[in-house]
Amino acid sequence: MINSKGRDKPILITGGCGFIGCNLADRLAARGDQVMILDNLARSGVRENAQWLRSRHPDRVNIAVADVRDPIPVIDAVREAGAVLHLAAQVAVTSSLERPLEDFETNARGTINVLEAVRLHNPSAPVIFASTNKVYGRLVDDTQIVRSGPRYVPADPALARGVAENAPLDFYSPYGCSKGTADQYVHDYARVFGLRTVVMRMSCIYGPRQFGTEDQGWIAHFVLSALRGDPLTIYGDGLQVRDALFVADAAEAWIAVLDQIERTRGQIFNLGGGVARSVSLLELIELLRQLTNQDIRFGFADWRPGDQPWYVSDVSALSAAVGWQPTTSLVDGLSSLQAWLGSRFGGTLGHRGALA
Hints:
Blueprint: H1 4-7, E1 11-14, H2 19-30, E2 35-39, H3 46-56, E3 61-65, H4 71-79, E4 83-86, H5 93-98, H6 100-121, E5 127-132, E6 145-148, E7 151-154, H7 173-193, E8 197-202, E9 204-206, H8 218-228, E10 232-235, E11 241-246, H9 247-259, H10 261-264, E12 268-271, E13 278-280, H11 281-292, E14 298-301, H12 316-322, H13 330-344
Parallel strand pairs: 1-2, 1-4, 2-3, 4-5, 5-8, 8-12, 9-11, 10-14
Antiparallel strand pairs: 6-7, 11-13
């Protein structure tokens, strides 16, 4: 557990009004922690998430509007923190292709600002960083995957359990480069400066309070498109596979890593749903058809830079370190997301079908 001195101070969450950040803040406040959020409130939906947090935890959640690219508010927040959960980021590959300098400033420079603030002003505070599976690049090329029904599978049997943390890094796309740079800085500040840092390389996290778009949050985007009756565009052939993790399970993993920081410090963990919760785009569309009893129209477009034909996390290192396992099935998680999106956007996705 975090030492008593740390627990007397608020937990700082950068980007804490974003999808994962607000779910983390809600879980921490609900268990009695004081939470301090630093967020520039620039992304769609974050102001709504901020209001939701204020209404649920008026005495435990404090929100400061600031940007991690500005070192002064970062230093002010870090000075007061018992721990830092760093999630503030530019999160879309497409945006990084359009504005690579802004992407770098937010993801790489913003992370250095956080690390330097901790190193110089609060070196005992744990730092947990939201990295991404994109640091592994495309991972496998077309000759290393085979089709199995409506999905790709890796030809190499060594990947049967998913991608482990020792997989080679290959920063692909400006987003992959900026997040990969931050990932390595966070890891190196543990080795060189002795900070208590942990890197969480996350796969596809989904669930309530996610305002999914075509560029980011693809599972929520698929469900929301079904809700609205909008056609989907699949970039690639739809056989590409990801592992999906419900946000409540992701939050529990982050909290377990934080609570056991003396065991986890200096480590890198892959965080996702694993093999049991892997799904291809075509399989997800079929699941949604069964779940909603509605047809879902879709078409195809070219692959986008950095798209991975197959990625599934091996979460065994995280499980061994903190005893964490995901508990929410893909069907139950999709049902929860469907219910939230339906209530939020004033519609329904139809009656539950065979998957109920």
